[in-house]
Design goal:
The chain contains 18 helices and eleven strands. The protein has helices at 55-59, 66-70, 73-80, 84-89, 94-115, 119-124, 128-133, 146-155, 160-170, 186-198, 212-226, 266-274, 293-303, 319-327, 344-357, 370-385, 432-438, 444-449; strands at residues 5-14, 34-42, 47-51, 172-176, 203-207, 255-259, 283-285, 309-312, 333-334, 394-396, 415-416.
């Protein structure tokens, strides 16, 4: 008997991170980390959980056999994007694209759970032909055809098992953001930076853009900590190592990155970042509007004499923006977001384009559950697509993982452990108790914060 999708539930989950300054930057000064959360049910008992859902698109799944989607996930992606009314809201951008991400990620999560594998393992076990069929290609074939993608994947087939064994053993390289939020005191930044060093990290990111003099002062403070050999009693990475080439690594092999979260116009970005050259950042992240490919290209050209690169992508709303960033030679680092792009099928298309252009993929992971998501994507990129992780680093923010039963974990080298539980799918399941506590507006935390007042919905 075939399985049918029977119904779904949605929840608006918000965590009060503004109370502690977690997530603060020049653009978002008092943010509460949030996610729309959907659970999709089948008549066989199979359950899938994802972030960023919208009821209208999730409702299209009801009554369908999920196996009909699993046969060709690229075709399923095209079908999800083809709703005539919803395309008028986008097309393929904004709220409707977040909804598409929810549905596509939901199907991938269900697919992995049905096969008893973590998502990354499901995909790296695919043949090159199956992986191409799982990918979204519409509007990008002027830079990457299905045939080119197939040839690229076949060329990486020979070493897949060795790469899988290596990343499973040593973990995936990471950098830490949660030591450098803009709203933290100097004491807290200093303490968290030293704790990150003790945890094995050698890539660190700080938020910038509110005040140049203060950013320079904070950057020097962080540099004084991460460049001090006394803070590395167990030794440190040779700054001349190939994986650190071009990253402005300090004497301990430590790398500093800066992130402006889209706060500047193009001329402002160039002038401001040039003023931070003294702290030797590897790159400036999101220096201007996220869909301004030519603006990013101008910034990259202007900063090249300073040895500072450009990274962006967490707010790039579809694969076409990435295509233009690659075509314009606008970025040095590609930062995909698992919920801003429309799910795994579109992420695959961006990772394939990045591999063709030789741009390292360093996913964004600064939100609710994103670290749990993106470790799967980075392992897929390494094992099946690019074949390299030496210069890649995956973002890690040490917030809110306690709400997930399949939470991500780090090893003693500051690397992500590879997910291994065959039941976790895409690793995004949230505890029911967390949903009950933090659902907006009438979860127990929010009702308590309002002195017991329940809001009508």
């Amino acid at each position: 008997m075939s399985t049918r999708i029977t119904h779904f539930e949605t929840h608006d989950i918000r965590f009060p991170t503004s109370l502690t300054g977690d997530g603060t930057d020049a653009m978002n000064t008092d943010c509460d980390y949030s996610s729309a959360y959907v659970t999709i049910y089948t008549d066989s008992g199979l359950i899938v959980l994802v972030c960023h859902a919208i009821r209208e698109l999730a409702g299209r799944l009801v009554g369908r056999d999920p196996e009909s989607f699993f046969e060709n996930m690229g075709k399923a992606w095209d079908w999800i994007c083809s709703d005539s009314q919803m395309r008028w809201i986008g097309p393929e951008k904004g709220v409707v694209h977040l909804a598409t991400a929810a549905v596509n990620n939901a199907l991938w999560d269900m697919f992995a759970r049905a096969r008893g594998k973590p998502l990354w393992k499901l995909i790296v076990d695919m043949t090159p032909e199956e992986l191409v069929n799982a990918t979204a290609f519409r509007y990008i074939t002027d830079v990457l055809t299905r045939e080119e993608a197939l040839a690229m994947l076949k060329a990486k087939e020979a070493g897949k098992r060795e790469r899988e064994a290596l990343v499973t053993k040593v973990g995936y390289p990471a950098y830490i953001t949660s030591a450098g939020w803009l709203g933290y005191s100097d004491e807290k930044v200093s303490r968290l930076t030293k704790e990150a060093i003790a945890s094995g990290f050698n890539h660190f990111k700080m938020k910038v853009g509110a005040d140049l003099k203060d950013d320079l002062r904070r950057g020097k403070m962080i540099r004084s900590i991460i460049d001090d050999p006394a803070n590395y009693p167990s030794g440190f990475t040779d700054p001349s190592s190939p994986e650190l080439a071009g990253k402005n690594a300090g004497p301990t092999g430590a790398v500093l990155m800066i992130d402006a979260n889209q706060v500047w116009d193009v001329p402002q970005a160039i002038e401001y970042v040039a003023g931070l050259a003294e702290i030797k950042p590897w790159f400036i992240e999101e220096p201007t509007a996220p869909d301004d490919a030519l603006g990013h290209a101008a910034i990259r050209r202007a900063l090249k004499p300073y040895g500072i690169g450009v990274a962006t992508g967490e707010h790039a709303h579809n694969r076409m923006v990435f295509k233009q960033l690659f075509q314009a030679e606008a970025i040095d680092v590609c930062q995909i977001d698992s919920c801003r792009l429309a799910g795994v099928s579109e992420v695959l298309s961006v990772m394939l384009m990045a591999a063709k252009y030789g741009i390292p993929v360093c996913p964004h992971a600064g939100g609710v559950g994103l670290c749990e998501y993106v470790i799967h994507l980075s392992v897929i990129d390494y094992v099946a697509i690019s074949g390299t992780m030496e210069r890649n680093v995956l973002e890690f923010a040490d917030h809110l993982h306690e709400h997930f039963p399949y939470r991500c974990t780090m090893n003693e080298r500051g690397r992500y452990n590879v997910p291994s539980n065959p039941k976790e799918g895409y690793s995004i399941e949230m505890y029911k108790e967390s949903i009950a506590e933090f659902e907006w507006p009438n979860g127990s935390y929010w009702v308590g914060a309002r002195g017991g007042k329940v809001l009508s919905t």
